[in-house]
Amino acid sequence: MASNPQDIKGPLVIAGRVGCDTLLLIMPRTDIFNFVKFEAQPGKADELAQWLANLKARADSDKEPGTVQYNIVRFGESFAIFEEYTGLEALVAYVLPSI
Question: Mind telling me which SUPFAM superfamilies this protein's record contains (predicted)?
Answer without folding.
Answer: Dimeric alpha+beta barrel
